[in-house]
């Protein structure tokens, strides 16, 4: 367990020290600090009424087509993939799309529920997808600990996961997910291709300012969520639902409820708006 702490580093620097979870005794209503007092919290519901068509420059995903080694870990709250910092010059990063900086991919993790129709954190028109993937990126020009406490220091890409009969997204991770149901277990995955976690259409996205969806719920997080989902199979959902917490109980659900917008505007960039701008 000693060298396991290293895999918490990303969260350890920013997360609250208290034990939190998703059960009645430690779940979202009991979370403290910014989770309780924050006014720009995530996740949110996306609806046309609060959306503003926007045209950004193209959002670019670099080295997402490079395969590399990741460690997949059950950290008691989620299944998390780490190790991109060992990819050297091939560490995936993003820029453009209205982002002010270049951001390195540092980890991805998943949210799901024991119920197929409530598994995503964000919702569209009040409806959930079956699961949601978060690709966490950190400003490339700052040390990790500084970036994590700087507004706009972290940007998260949210990808909805719809229930499908086939999924190219998690196929390469399925065997690993099957082996890490016990808290603290970790499996190395070779030849992992980040591109498989992106939807076909990455030119249309929602953009808003929010927070981490887990304690300490730090604000100043730039969110990009694609309306276009990737897919997850029923078998893959079953494997996720086997995950156990530190206490050994079934994690079951790791979804934070929808948070109030409090006047925030969600920007929506899409090819459709681009074509309007181009032709008129
Ligand atoms: C995965 O974890 C092991 C330690 O268990 C470590 O030696 C290795 O560097 C890690 N791989 C990546 C890609 O982070
Ligand atoms: C799943 O969630 C939906 C929506 O909240 C609800 O209507 C349904 O009864 C739930 N299904 C189960 C099996 O709990
Ligand atoms: Zn998340």
Topology:
Layout lengths: L8 H4 L21 H4 L7 E2 L4 E3 L5 E4 L5 E7 L4 E4 L10 E4 L6 E10 L10 E2 L6 E9 L4 H4 L6 E10 L10 H6 L6 E7 L12 E7 L7 E14 L1 H7 L25 E4 L1 H9 L1
Parallel strand pairs: 1-8, 2-14, 10-13
Antiparallel strand pairs: 3-6, 4-5, 4-11, 5-7, 6-7, 7-9, 9-10, 12-13, 12-14
GO cellular component, one term: cytoplasm
Organism: Panagrellus redivivus
GO molecular function: carbonate dehydratase activity; zinc ion binding
Highest-level CATH class: Alpha Beta
Indicate the percent of residues in helices.
10-25%
Strand content: 25-35%
CATH homologous superfamily - what is it? Alpha carbonic anhydrase
Helix count from the secondary structure assignment: 6
> Overall mean pLDDT score?
91
Question: Do you know the CATH architecture?
Answer: Roll
What does this structure look like?
This protein is mainly β and 280 residues long. It is 12% helix and 31% strand. It has 6 helices and 14 strands. Strands 2, 3, 4, 5, 6, 7, 9, 10, 11, 12, 13 and 14 form a 12-stranded mixed sheet that branches. A two-stranded parallel sheet has the order 1-8. A hairpin with a 6-residue loop joins strand 6 and strand 7 (103-112). Residues 1-14 and 276-280 have low confidence and may be disordered.
């Amino acid at each position: 367990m000693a060298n396991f702490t290293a895999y918490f580093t990303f969260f350890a620097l920013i997360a609250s020290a208290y034990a939190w979870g998703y059960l009645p005794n430690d779940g979202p209503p009991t979370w403290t600090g910014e989770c309780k007092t924050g006014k720009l919290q995530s996740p949110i519901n996306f609806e046309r009424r609060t959306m503003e068509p926007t045209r950004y420059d193209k959002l670019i995903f670099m080295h997402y087509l490079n395969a590399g080694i990741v460690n997949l870990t059950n950290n008691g709250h989620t299944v998390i993939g780490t190790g991109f910092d060992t990819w050297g010059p091939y560490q995936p990063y993003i820029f453009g799309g209205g982002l002010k900086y270049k951001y390195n991919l540092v980890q991805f993790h998943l949210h799901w529920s024991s119920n197929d129709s409530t598994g995503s954190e964000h919702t569209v028109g009040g409806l959930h997808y079956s699961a949601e993937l978060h690709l966490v990126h950190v400003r490339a020009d700052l040390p990790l600990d500084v970036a994590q406490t700087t507004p706009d220091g972290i940007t998260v890409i949210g990808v909805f996961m719809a229930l499908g009969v086939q999924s190219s997204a998690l196929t390469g991770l399925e065997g690993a997910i099957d082996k890490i149901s016990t808290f603290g277990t970790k499996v190395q995955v070779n030849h992992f291709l980040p591109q498989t976690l992106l939807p076909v259409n990455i030119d249309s996205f929602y953009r808003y300012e929010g927070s981490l969806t887990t304690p300490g719920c730090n604000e100043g997080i730039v969110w990009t969520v694609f309306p276009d989902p990737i897919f997850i199979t029923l078998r893959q959902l079953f494997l996720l639902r086997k995950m156990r917490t530190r206490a050994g109980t079934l994690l079951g659900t790791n979804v934070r409820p929808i948070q109030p917008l409090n006047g925030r505007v969600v920007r929506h960039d899409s090819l459709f708006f681009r074509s309007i701008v181009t032709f008129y």
